[in-house]
Amino acid sequence: HALSQVLSSLLQRFLQKYGYLGALRHAPAGTARASPAFSCREFQRASHLAPSGRLDAPTLQQMGRPRCGTGDGHSQDAWARRGRRWKRYSPHGAKWHKRHLTYRVVNRPPYLPPRELRAAVRAAFELWSNVSALVFWEARDGAADIRLAFFHGDHNDGLSNAFDGPGGALAHAFFPRRGEAHFDSDERWSLRSGKGRNLFVVVAHEVGHTLGLEHSPVKSALMSPYYKKLSKDFVLSWDDVLAIQNLYGKPSKGSAIQLPGKVFTHFQDWSMDLSDGERQQRSLSAYYCHSFFDAITADADHNLYIFKGSRYWLVPASGNASDPQPLHSRWPGLPAALDAAAWSQLSGKFYFFKGGRCWRYKGSVLEAGFPQKCSAGGLPRHPDTALYFQQLRHLVLFKGAKYFVVSEESLHVEPYYPRSLRDWAGLPAGTAGALRHRDGFLYFFRDHQYWQFDQAKLQVVATGMWATELPWMGCWDANGGQVLF
Ligand SMILES: *[C@@H]1O[C@H](CO)[C@@H](O)[C@H](O)[C@H]1NC(C)=O
Ligand SMILES: *[C@@H]1O[C@H](CO)[C@@H](O)[C@H](O)[C@H]1NC(C)=O
Q1: CA separation for the pair 167, 109 (Å, rounded)
Q2: Ligand 1 atom 5 nearest Cα
Q3: pLDDT per residue as tens digits for the range 410-449
Q4: How far apart are alpha carbons 100 and 484 in whole angstroms?
Q5: Which residues does the Swiss-Prot or TrEMBL record annotate as the active site (predicted)?
Q6: Mean pLDDT, to the nearest integer, of 69-94?
Q7: Domain boundary assignment for the chain
């Protein structure tokens, strides 16, 4: 009973935050105007779920998905009329009265290289100017019509707009003519495919709000409240294009130009391009400590290998991390931005996974027949984490809510797998990597957190922040009282 009360107040807060409760002036005549069940049904309809009006499992799951923090309230009128003809509108017809607008990136997470960040933001604005009569200029300093900024937690936008750390609301923006978009600085942002939150698609979406666009009920729209995935489709759907042209007209020069979403997935392949100033400020070895990584593993001598982009760091048992090394210097032929890595105690070999393929190295030598299409053997594409698990004497791959036990010889999934992650009591889905430490525990990592797993009890026994609480991760700088961005 207590739990159901907690859940129902959680639902109420959620519906309020996103404008489903209290904004019911558009409710059809005869419906109970302030009824949470009605609001819940509206939210379910907008999220393409069965409109039960109750907090069922799919609804709870939907509430937990990362999304835009800007409310859906104003859009409901349009959404409620789905099935009839609906049109999108901007609240109070808010729009800019000029076609030439300036923008500025006010601050940035220190781990995002400035050049790539500027390129991504420019492309995000270009998406909209390429299909409308708008023109944008970057203002390097001074006043700008539209300002993009990263904030931590409560940042004076009202408590319901406070950022909530990784997941949940990732960003929000204001309608014209306030000209502000805010991004949660506690997310692990990325400007390439692979791990981390894709900043490009979030910037492009939030810029849409600053121009006056509401959330779209169309699932494939950039302006859908749940950020779209970049694929071979165009980033803007017909719905986005109609909405912006409705406010600002068609482009003056010829026809609208659109590129497939895949083009925008690799602004950044992290390289050594930190500026000299940044190099002095912060030792390079600690770079991964201030960010997130792609994969991690440990070998027989308890050396840690931490992978990010096209580099890796080696942290020996002493805890002093090496400088970042190019991946190919040790594992020739290995691609950048790995999904998962594991060192096997059984064979002494390194395994790497990316997409549907896998690589196996003995020392620095890629074994014959590799890379292999491992997805053909039933292995998941884009695994979250790989681990050699001594208890089973097998490799284990984790992907979402499932895990797969894999034979090292055949690289096929063993019978009766995959199974539910529930077997690993207390372990969250979507970890970035795992390793066995010399203390005998397994450690799993996700964003800035770790989970310590007892192999005998088969359960998580502790959790915390890895950069500051696990000295063997080599983050001396992070321990030195520096703020982790
Ligand atoms: C906008 O159009 C130009 C060509 O006019 C093209 O080069 C550019 O890549 C387009 N930008 C985006 C983000 O689609
Ligand atoms: C690690 O590096 C620090 C700073 O350079 C040094 O003081 C310390 O002695 C080193 N520790 C080991 C075990 O090498």
Answers
A1: 17
A2: 257
A3: 999 999 999 999 999 999 999 999 999 999 999 999 988 8
A4: 37
A5: 206
A6: 58
A7: 2-44+53-62, 100-268, 283-483
